[in-house]
Amino acid sequence: MQHHKVDILGTPVSSLTMDELFSDWERVIKGGEKAQVCITPVNSILAARATARVQEIYKHADYVLCDGVPVKWASGFLGDPIKERITGLDVLPRIFPFALQRDISIFLLGASPGVAETLKEVMEAKHPGVKIVGTFVPPFRAVFSKEENQEMIEAINAVKPDILLVSLTAPKQDIWIAENLANLDTHLAIGIGGAFEVAAGMIQRAPLWMQKSGLEWFYRFLQEPKRMFRRYFVEAPVFIPLIIQQKFSTRSGRP
């Protein structure tokens, strides 16, 4: 699980190709190890900068993936280019054939009611024989009660999945995994964000040309303007000035 990480505003972001990532994950699962995977867009990196607890979680996570063109751009601007942009929307569709070929089991936790079940049905139809061993939709709230949390853990541990996919939005999903991974009978816990709905066909992904040109964020905003407005028009504009500040602080030897 050793690989190079690039410091983006205090968050160490993994520099890996998708092939290297999945090869690593296979070793983790076959070796009976445990690993936390965080998928970090700009808003997650800004949340980490603002909250020491979140930043500590990202510092200790095994994989912190580069979700977004601005994050990849920042690494190049800082002189330490990340190998590849790896989003939750790219990772999720690849997980199911990966799991099928290696007899690896998957559990789906989170998203809105009905989404995980729909995703399960879609992927079982697309990849016959894939082992999606359970789904669970926790209540929609900022913090789970002790009883609710225990119910989630018991549902997962009852089927012992190799891969746990958690869709609770970032950084909430990353906090939950960090706090509970030691008690979970799983090998790979991945905070996958809002990718369930897209992979299930409930929300359409941006055309490929928009993905490649860095305009996928705009497509998502048009689909969910109320939910995405703050992320893209309040939080994101702060990112570039902070990256410029980091570059010149590093040059001058200041932290």
Average pLDDT confidence is 91
Q: What is the chains' assembly state?
A: single chain
- The CATH architecture assignment turns out to be 3-Layer(aba) Sandwich
Strand order of the largest sheet: 4-3-8-7-5-6
The major beta sheet can be summarized as: 6 strands, parallel
Structural classification: alpha/beta
Give the C-level CATH assignment.
Alpha Beta
Element order, helices and strands?
Answer: EEHEHHEHHEHEHEHEHHHH
Structural description of this entry:
The chain is globular and about 55 Å long. A six-stranded parallel beta sheet has the order 4-3-8-7-5-6, with helices on both faces. Strands 1-2 form a two-stranded antiparallel sheet. The mean pLDDT is 91. 39% of the residues are buried. The protein contains twelve helices and eight strands. Helices cover 52% and strands 15% of the residues. By secondary structure, the protein is of the alpha/beta class. Strand 1 and strand 2 form a beta hairpin. The longest helix is centred in the C-terminal third of the chain and has 27 residues, at 225-251. It has a single domain (5-199), classed as Rossmann fold.
